[in-house]
Structures are given as C-alpha cells and as structure tokens.
Amino acid sequence: MSLAGKTAIVTGAGSGINLAFARLLLRKQCNVIVADLALRPEAEEVVAAHSSPSRSPARAVFQRTDVREWPQLERAGVYEPVSRPSSSAYPCLFPRFLALICIDLSPQQPFSSFWHPPGSSASRDLPDSDRYALLDINLTHPIRTTQLAIAHFLSKRRQSASSTSSTPSTNHVVHISSIAGQVTPLLAPLYNASKHGISGFVRTLAPLDRHHGIRVTAVAPGVIDTPLWRDNPEKLRLVNEAGGDKWVSAEEVAEVMGALVGDGGKDEIEVVKGTGSSSGDGPEGKGMVRIEGGLILEIGKGRVRKVEQFNDAGPQGAGNSVGNMPLVDGEILEMLGSGTWGV
Q: How far is CA 220 from CA 106, 147, 240, 263, 285, in A?
C-alpha cells in the first residue's frame, strides 16, 4: 500500500516512538493527526514544518487529546479544525478517509504504580477515582480507539462497495505492546498487565484482516531511547550501560511499524529465527514472516523477532533487558517485609 495521500491518527505522537513514526509517515507523504496532551519541542518543529501545502506535500495537525476521555478520542478520529483558515483554498484539512491508526501512550499523562496505592503520598491515582490511570492509558484507550477505527473502516468500505467495483485497500491499526507483554518484572505489575492485555487483544482481532481487510498488529519494543525513559529517573536507574545494556532507537521501531502498514508494498518482513523463537531450532538465523493481522514483532537492537503465541522463548538479544532490574525488585521485596506498606 502506498502511504502517499493517506491519513493517519497517531496517539502519543508528541514524543518518542510515535513521533518517530509520524516523521516516517510524513516523509512518505502521509498526513498525520497528532493526538496527544502536548508536544515536546521536537514535535512542535515537525508539526510546524508540515503546517501548510506550501511547506510540505503531507500535512501534520496537532489535536490536543487526553486519551482517557472517550469524547476526545472520538474528536481526534473525525477531526475538524476549530477554526478554518480564512482562505477558500483550504476548505478541509484532510479527507475523512483514514487509512492508519497508531496507538501509544503519552509521556505527559499521569502514571500509576501498583506499589504506590491510591491515597499514598507517592501515588498519582486518586483514592476516589475508581480506576488506575495507567490502565486507562495503556489498555482501555487502545481498545476504545480500535473500536472507533473498526467502525470507521467498515463504514468506508460499505460506501466504497456501493460506489465502485474496485477492491478496497487494507486498513491498519498498529499498537505499541512491549517486551513487558512477555516477561513479568515485579517492579511494574500494572504495566505488565496492560501490555499482556494489548498482545492478547491484537491476536484476538487477527481474523479481521482476512474477512474485512482491517489489519491489527503490534510492535513489542525493548529498551527504547526516548523521553519516557530518559526523563524518568525511576526507569533510567534500571539501565546498566556499563554492564552492557543497549538502547534501541525510536527510529528502529518506526521502521518496523512502517513495514507493518505496508510501506514499500511488501507482504513479508525479515526477522530473526532459530534460538529464541519456536519457528526454528538451533543457531540463530534470519527468515521471512508474512505480515498479517495478529502479528506481534519484538524489536531489539538491530533485530526483529516474531513473538509466537505459544511456546515463545521470550525476549532475546541486546536492547531487550535492563541489568539493574533484580536490584529494584529486591528493594520492593524488602519494603514489603518491613511492615510499612499497605493500602
């Protein structure tokens, strides 16, 4: 599928992985609606550089969105500018046909921690809110956004079927899972649960590709060099670069996401096979896997691996582990044994 002239909604594109993906889409002349709470300076530059047809063939528009609020997700999905440019040359910023939805969290959003219960001094969840913000952001928001996307895609396909005999192109929803959807570090029970949930959700929707041309896939990044890590001291102290921990760039993840949505028109992607994958035994090598609904691709440093549904060996290679995790897990166990923790 050519990305030129298509439109993508990218939640969480104010920074990090999805900002890198937005840049890739714009380079491919795909319009981007950036749905986030705020833009980091580098994201502001991207939006400004694609603010008008005279500056770029692809447009980028920032739609302020708190993904925990469903009405705001709906507004992002059927975007209309609050104030249209006065010139009649711009009656509409984008066509309403949206080809891509990419879903990620925003680092500006509040996070929850299982080990800081609602009401404790370090908690970011209010005791009377009846919810964990992290689950709203990481799990509920992607599920609701996918519902909206599927409804939109089905509506457009019905309209296309009534007006033309041509075969509709595949539509895409790309989720950001994580290696935390495979492993279970004690530090982050809520985060682990959310990413396990995303991976299961994506696999569940695999039949939509074959029956309705709606391809729901996911990437499962490792340790990504983004503000979500660099600006968070609690996360950053997990990384032991002196001990060999490696960072994966956001651009490496974005390239794989581009392949998932058909950039280059290929139906396959090269992945690592052998050790670390149930698709082969013995020494690690490379092979091709078909891009289809339900596919989840782990992304480490310089390597991509298909995450198998059954008998998967778990994250492998550089960029998929943090050396100081056992130390932090030990601190949690010690805290629990001190008698000071409670709800």
A: 17, 21, 21, 19, 20
Q: 170, 262 in Cβ contact below 8 A? A: yes
What is the distance between the alpha carbons of residues 270 and 290, in angstroms, rounded to a whole number?
9
DSSP line for 189-226:
HHHHHHHHHHHHHHHHTTHHHHHHSEEEEEEEE-SEES
Q: How many CA atoms lie within 13 A of 68 on its CB side?
A: 14
Q: Please, are residues 281 and 274 in contact by the beta-carbon 8 Å criterion?
A: yes
Find the helix or strand (DSSP H, E) in which 21 lies: helix 16-27
Place of tokens 């809110």: 129
Q: For the whole model, what pTM was predicted?
A: 0.88
Virtual CA dihedral for 175, 176, 179, 183, nearest 10 degrees? -70
Is residue 252 a contact partner of residue 196, using CB atoms and an 8 Å limit?
no
Q: The sheet that has 296-300: what strands, in order across it?
A: 60-64, 31-36, 7-11, 100-103, 171-176, 214-221, 296-300, 303-306, 268-273, 285-290
Which value, to the nearest 10 degrees, does the dihedral of the CA atoms of residues 13, 228, 301, 271 take? -50
- pLDDT one-digit tens code per residue, 142-196: 999 999 999 888 988 887 776 554 555 689 999 999 999 999 999 999 999 999 9
* In contact, 334 and 255? CB cutoff 8 Å: no
